Amino acid sequence: MSEVNVLWQRATGIARQPAFMQGVRDMLGTMPGIAAWGLVTGVAMVKSGMSLPLAVFMTLTIYAGSAQLAVLPLMAVGAPLWVLWFTAFCVNLRFVILSTMWRGFFSHLRLRHRLAIGYFSGDVIFVAFTKRYPEAVKRPEQVPHFWGAALSNWLGWQIPSIAGIYLANVIPLSWGLGFAGVLALLGVLYSMLNDRATWVACAVASLAAVAAFALPLKLNILTAIAAAVSVGLLMEQAERRAVRLRPLPAVRPPDPAKGEHHPVLPLDEGSDTASARSHAAAANPAANAAASKERA
After folding, report:
1. CA neighbor of 263 nearest in space, from 275, 254, 250, 276
2. Is 264 helix (H, G, I), strand (E, B) or coil?
3. Phi/psi at 10 (nearest 5 deg)?
4. What is the rounded (10 degree) CA torsion for 128, 129, 134, 135?
């Protein structure tokens, strides 16, 4: 059997998994914003003077709306090639951080499979994926879920982007369709703010992005990402240290009226008796040994 047939069977097998359709459904809410963003990016490429074949080649190979929009003004004024590359590199540095997180889920896959994941991955896909799988524990359904979300996002971007390329003379940039993409990302961001650490990281990223807005080559985006990641890591480390320093509950004497014969931990509301007994035994090995001896 040829390698192409093996890959085709593998792809169709992934597409038949229930998690694949779950990934598709997880992306439906962001599709209108992604489509509008792709459409306005396609229009912007042609309006900047790029030929139709080159614009199609750019959207299919780069597949990064923020980087494309960042370099288009530089291309229009004839900026040096190294400036274009460096600008795109700075804007897309966030994907390096995302890739380190993807590794926890997909490091066991073959290199070519990981390279394909690297091309198709994106911000919105990462958010949808980590909401369903918050812990970096490998599960069989994660690969189908990723590809369901990734292919939906890719088609939701590429089809409107190519349409915008060929309809650039009909759709004016003054429509402001790109703002719909920003609104979609804001909706995704709000769904991630589920604890104090994420709220603080979001606030720090916003302040850093505004404070560093004057930096060239969109470096304020990189500054905001670095600040948010640093604060998030520091808060996570502080919470872990606080948990370690938290005092353990004291063991109380037995209450003969309740039929207790050995020291036990205080019961929390809703705690079952079996759980309390296990905690008490763990906290007092001597009492546990005495109980075992009494039963014997």
Report:
1. 254
2. strand
3. -65, -45
4. -170
Answer whether 22's CB lies under 8 Å from 28's CB. no
Helix (H, G, I), strand (E, B) or coil at 252: strand
Q: Does pTM surpass 0.85?
A: no
Pairwise pLDDT comparison (289 vs 135), residue with the higher score:
135
Residue 273 pLDDT more than 60?
no
Which residue shows structure tokens 């001597």?
286
Nearest partner of 262 among 237, 295, 229, judged by Cα: 295
The encoded tokens of residue 229 equal 């990641």
Task: Give the pLDDT of residue 269.
Answer: 42
> What whole-number distance in Å separates Cα of residue 210 and Cα of residue 113?
38
The answer to whether 14 and 147 have CB atoms below 8 angstroms apart is yes
Exposed, middle or buried: residue 255 (CB in 10 Å: 0-12, 13-18, 19+)?
exposed
Name, of 112-126, 190-204, 255-269, 271-285, the range with top average pLDDT.
112-126
C-alpha distances in angstroms, 69 versus 38, 43, 58, 126, 132? 10, 11, 11, 21, 30
pLDDT digits (tens, 9 = 90+) for 172-194: 666 665 666 676 667 667 766 77
Q: Which residue has the tokens 């036990």?
A: 264
Tell me what pLDDT residue 277 has.
47
Of residues 30, 32, 29, 62, the one with CA closest to residue 45? 62
Phi and psi angles of residue 264, each rounded to the nearest 5 degrees, phi first: -135, 160
138-173 burial: b if 16+ Cβ within 10 Å, else e: eeeebbbbbbbbbbbbbebbbebbbbbbeebeebee
